[in-house]
Design a protein that fits this description.
Layout: H1 11-27, H2 30-47, H3 50-63, H4 68-80, H5 84-97, H6 102-115, H7 118-131, H8 136-148, H9 152-165, H10 170-182, H11 186-199, H12 204-216, H13 220-233, H14 238-250, H15 254-267, H16 272-286, H17 288-301, H18 306-318, H19 322-335, H20 339-355, H21 359-372, H22 377-389, H23 393-406, H24 411-424, H25 427-440, H26 445-457, H27 461-474
């Protein structure tokens, strides 16, 4: 039979079918509707459609908030989205509603362990252990919690129980290795780590333990080997790639460091920050001309990305090509969009005007930025600098405190705040902010020198020498 020979469905029949469906849904009890949404969510979860699965689980909970499975399904969705707080709450609810659900108890204990809620983590893992005595994952988790609680003997016993059942259990070996590291028994720790990695070669905790041991032993070959292992198994952890770059650059292996940076860019081509890191790296290693060449090549390939044009303006200004720098920034500002890029252009131009002693133009640009965003951190910091130069230390402190609320881990803001507090005569606050500034900046030489000069003004020469000594250790060049 050909499908084209079937009679068409009339609009009336379609309307009747829809009406019947709605009537049947309306007749269903809240529990039945909750179950239907829950089952739909489970199917969507299997298909990997997490946004719609989350919506279905929430619909199920709206009709029946005592449906433990829906809370557990929602925890799966929140885990995928890395919403750890919401995942924790969903697991708590699932465990409350179904006290015998081992999966809910175990996952909740893991999350509480990571969050440092050790007493509740132990309570939940103990409950899971009572229901399933010889589960090696539960035993290993219990060992880890006991270790963090300071019960090393109990932790070792639980880890050994797990290993008796599963000799390569990575988490149990990690607990033993942690104790051995505390005892400075690195040989035994490495043995435990390697046994654990035999069961799980990608185990991040064990690999980080191994990295620490080889780094402390100053074994460059093995340190690099483990860094590359971690990157291979966990390519999204940017901090490890940065550690490898620092490692290579610190050993003058600049060509290899550049290769690694280019690999990072290839993996994230839209990340302008990585490309600018490469430009800065080339500038340090090969000089300003090479950095300019790389930047101009990048602009030609990505003419729509203002971040590169802003960087070129900074480079032009540093090389006394003031007219070119100003022209580039004015062109970005004149476009009016994107607004964030326009604000950055105004801030950079304001900074240049202030360095050129054109204070009126600089202040006008800062005011334009703050008119559009009263909490713009960079504009507040620039205005604070202007106020400080004019002798208004109190006004500078007010701006810098607001800026620090927006960006609490900013070393430059801390440094400027320290100088403002010194002008006010509040020496304790100045000392506190200088200390934070050098820590956040990894004892960057200019920041360390500013702090040392401040300490000398307070007749604290020994402390000044300590700060400079630490800066020299970290930056021997």
């Amino acid at each position: 039979m050909r499908f084209s020979s079937l009679p068409p469905v009339s609009p009336l029949l379609r309307c009747m079918a829809l009406t019947l469906t709605l009537l049947l849904a309306a007749c269903a009890s809240p529990e039945e509707r909750a179950q239907a949404h829950y089952e739909s969510g489970q199917q969507l979860l299997k298909e990997g459609d997490f946004p719609r699965a989350g919506l279905e689980f929430r619909n199920a909970i709206n009709f029946n908030d005592k449906l433990a499975g829906a809370w557990l399904g929602l925890a799966d969705v929140e885990e995928k989205n890395e919403n750890w707080g919401q995942m924790l709450e969903a697991l708590k609810r699932a465990a409350e509603l179904d006290a015998k659900n081992i999966d809910a108890r175990t996952r909740l204990a893991k999350l509480q362990f990571v969050a440092g809620d050790l007493d509740n983590a132990l309570k939940n893992v103990n409950a899971a252990n009572e229901m399933r005595k010889d589960d090696t994952a539960i035993l290993a988790l219990r060992a880890a919690i006991l270790f963090r609680l300071g019960d090393r003997e109990g932790a070792a016993a639980e880890a050994e129980r797990a290993l008796a059942l599963e000799p390569n259990n990575p988490d149990a070996h990690a607990v033993l290795a942690a104790g051995q590291l505390i005892d400075k028994n690195n040989v035994a720790a490495l043995r435990s780590i390697d046994r654990g990695l035999a069961g799980d070669p990608a185990n991040l905790g064990l690999l980080m333990f191994k990295l620490r041991i080889h780094d402390e032993a100053k074994d460059d070959v093995k340190t690099e080997e483990v860094l590359r292992q971690i990157i291979s198994h966990h390519p999204k952890i940017k901090e490890v790639r940065q550690a490898l770059l620092t490692f290579l650059a610190g050993r003058k292996r600049f060509a290899e460091a550049e290769t690694e940076l280019r690999a990072m860019i290839a993996a994230e081509p839209a990340n302008a920050g990585l490309t600018l890191d490469l430009v800065r790296f080339i500038g340090r290693v090969k000089g300003a001309a090479a950095a300019r060449g790389e930047l101009e090549k990048t602009i030609a390939a990505h003419p729509e990305t203002n971040a590169y044009r802003l960087a070129l303006a900074e480079l032009d200004f540093a090389e006394k090509k003031t007219d070119a720098a100003v022209a580039t920034l004015n062109a970005i500002i004149a476009k009016g969009e994107p607004k964030d890029d326009v604000a950055r252009g105004r801030i950079l131009l304001a900074s240049m005007r202030l360095q050129m002693k054109d204070t009126a133009a600089g202040k006008a640009l800062i005011a334009e930025v703050l008119a559009g965003d009263a909490k713009n951190t960079d504009a507040l910091a620039l205005r604070a600098g202007v106020k400080l130069d004019a002798g208004d230390a109190d006004g500078a402190v007010a701006d810098l405190r607001e800026a620090l609320n927006q960006r609490p881990q900013s070393g430059p803001i801390r440094l400027l705040l320290a100088k403002a507090h010194e002008r006010q005569g509040t020496i304790d606050l100045a000392t506190e902010n200088f200390t934070e500034a050098v820590k956040l900046g990894n004892y960057e030489p200019r920041v360390a020198a500013d702090f040392a000069a401040f300490l000398e003004r307070q007749n604290k020469r020994d402390q000044a020498e300590t700060v400079l000594g630490e800066a020299l250790v970290r930056h021997p060049e």
